[in-house]
Amino acid sequence: MKKSLFSLLAVIVMAGCTQSDVMEPVPNENVEIKLISSAIAAETMTRAPYEGTITADNTLAARVLVSETSGNYTTTYANDKMVFTDNGSTAVGFATAKYYPVDNSTLHICGLYPFEGWGNPANDECKFTFNGSQDVMAAPEKSSTKNDSKDGNYPQLEFKHLLTQLVIKAVAEDEAAIAKWGKLTDITLTKVGKNNPSGAVTVSLSAGTADESSAFATLLDNGMSFWVRGAGTETAFASQAKELTTDGEEVAYSMVAPLKNATGTADYTLAVKTEHSGTTPVTVPVNLKTTGSSSADYTASTQGKKFVVLLTFKATEIKATATVKDWEEDGGSSEEIQ
């Protein structure tokens, strides 16, 4: 009896997923393990936030884990890369084809992004250490058999963002502020709520989730770095000397641990350094607000959200405001630096 080829589809959640047959079923033919995939909208940069839908020019290279036991990936049937090329339409397989069991037994499949950097899965968990430059996503477990896949019913992995994206926009109130502060030289995240930021996340593989309170337990003593927005390779903002302007521009981003319940007051805290700020960084609390004219306090989970933080440099202080969006900006913060 011939084996069945493993295929999958992938989608990024909220990007609009459509499952369709991509191969004519051929009885008794090899049916590869394949998948379809989709993912939440985000702007593609090297190891940076994954933005936009999956396309041939914006592929999603994910780690796909396959197990014969639901909720247990300590021993895997397959654990390798799949590169998805569209959002929920075309099924793809592993670079080296892997096949379903000939006895039609069920396989259980989940996904992680990025492909590299994960620890070894243990039972239903897998850990990833991040530095602020990487997006982290997970797709919950789906199940399939040889006969299902042979008939074109490919599992669809739905990837969701597990971190919070902070994007920094810096603006000087006037020329006097530029003269006082000089160039912007460093931005560091020092607090998530009242705690130090975390540098690792433990994902529940079958659920495709990471609890905001318990999954981010590895705390950093020296804060989380910000990274240059739009750089071809990852470049820490600490290596920059950015001119301030009165027009303002986006200068940095960081992918950080989420808050389970933001309050709208000191949800995140930044340490900001400039050319003339001295040896002690300026502490800037980031108060998250909703979008719209009311700018009410943002009081929900920040996971999977993108906040644009407006740092306003004044002659006497630095302040920030932020509003958040669902990976397409759903709100943010605006603070002044005087």
Q: Care to describe what's here?
A:
The chain is mainly beta and 338 residues long. The chain folds into two domains: 4-161, Immunoglobulin-like; 164-337, Sandwich (Immunoglobulin-like). It is 4% helix and 39% strand. The chain has helices spanning 146-150, 175-181; strands at residues 4-12, 33-39, 60-67, 78-84, 92-93, 99-100, 107-113, 125-129, 137-144, 156-161, 164-172, 184-192, 200-204, 224-225, 227-228, 249-256, 268-274, 282-286, 306-313, 317-325, 330-337. The strands form four sheets. Strands 1, 2, 3, 4, 5, 6, 7, 9 and 10 form a nine-stranded mixed β-sheet that branches. Strands 11, 15, 16, 19, 20 and 21 form a six-stranded mixed β-sheet that branches. A hairpin with a 4-residue loop joins strand 20 (317-325) and strand 21 (330-337). It is elongated. Mean pLDDT is 85; it is low at 14-28 and 40-47.
What layout of secondary structure does this protein have?
Elements: E1 4-12, E2 33-39, E3 60-67, E4 78-84, E5 92-93, E6 99-100, E7 107-113, E8 125-129, E9 137-144, H1 146-150, E10 156-161, E11 164-172, H2 175-181, E12 184-192, E13 200-204, E14 224-225, E15 227-228, E16 249-256, E17 268-274, E18 282-286, E19 306-313, E20 317-325, E21 330-337
Parallel strand pairs: 1-2, 1-10, 2-10, 11-19, 19-21
Antiparallel strand pairs: 1-6, 2-5, 3-4, 3-7, 7-9, 8-13, 9-10, 11-16, 12-14, 12-17, 15-16, 17-18, 19-20, 20-21
